[in-house]
Amino acid sequence: MSKKKKYYVVWNGKKKGIFTSWDACKKQIDGFTGAQYKAFADKEEAELAFTKSYNEYKGKSTKKPTLSAKEKAAYGIPNLESISVDAACAGNPGLMEYRGVLTHNKKEIFKMGPFKNGTNNIGEFLALVHGIALLKSKKMDKLPIYSDSKIAMSWVQKKQCRTNVVFDASNKDILDLILRAEKWLQENSFRNPLLKWETKAWGEIPADFGRK
């Protein structure tokens, strides 16, 4: 049986951010005095934790209980006639990329990056807008789009990427993409349902980059 994926938040280390493997996390904390880090069972919880203080999680268990068959059934099943989007980022900020796939067979329909000095939330936002615009151009404006990021979904609804990342020459290409995405949202409407992928019931989103 394969191990369940974990997300490691480093609040204080050589490099701060959310990492998707223990090896990557360990590199940031080894030999670092006062390192602050913790593992989380799902990405959404890790993203939320990174916006808060380490002290709120210190000494507390973050292990998620396994859902019973009845609890899983309550979530229903995902609509396979859809597309799914996801992002990956090594560090926060760090090397970021995003993509979209057909939910039913994981066939990649677009992929962007990697870009320097981005974040996972930015990638999730750009992936959603990219997917929405692509489907609109193909006159498929009723096809649902799955994302496992509530933050990115809220940014799309607000038509603004509310990131705190500092932009300079190293990540100007990301800023250009954000501005273009925000402009598209302001000038276009869409009808595609944006749906939350329920990772705890269905496993990793089909667009997941699979980095353990």
From TrEMBL:
Cofactor binding, per record: Binds 2 metal ions per subunit. Manganese or magnesium.
The name of this protein is: Ribonuclease H
* GO molecular function annotations of the record: metal ion binding; nucleic acid binding; RNA-DNA hybrid ribonuclease activity
Q: In terms of domain of life, where is this protein from? A: Bacteria
Its job: Endonuclease that specifically degrades the RNA of RNA-DNA hybrids.
Residue ranges of the RNase H type-1 domain? 77-212
Q: Where in the cell is it found?
A: Cytoplasm
The keyword Manganese is annotated on this UniProt entry: yes
Residues noted as binding Mg(2+) 2 in the record, renumbered to the chain? 124, 148
Q: Which Gene3D superfamilies match?
A: Ribonuclease H-like superfamily/Ribonuclease H, Ribonuclease H1, N-terminal domain
The record's GO CC annotations read: cytoplasm
Q: Which organism is it from?
A: Tenacibaculum pelagium
- EC top class, as a word: hydrolase
Q: Which UniProt keywords apply?
A: Cytoplasm, Endonuclease, Hydrolase, Magnesium, Manganese, Metal-binding, Nuclease
Q: Which reaction does it catalyse?
A: Endonucleolytic cleavage to 5'-phosphomonoester
Entry-linked InterPro entries: Ribosomal_bL9/RNase_H1_N, RNase_H1_N, RNase_H1_N_sf, RNase_H_bac, RNaseH-like_sf, RNaseH_domain, RNaseH_sf
Per the record, the major location class is: cytoplasm
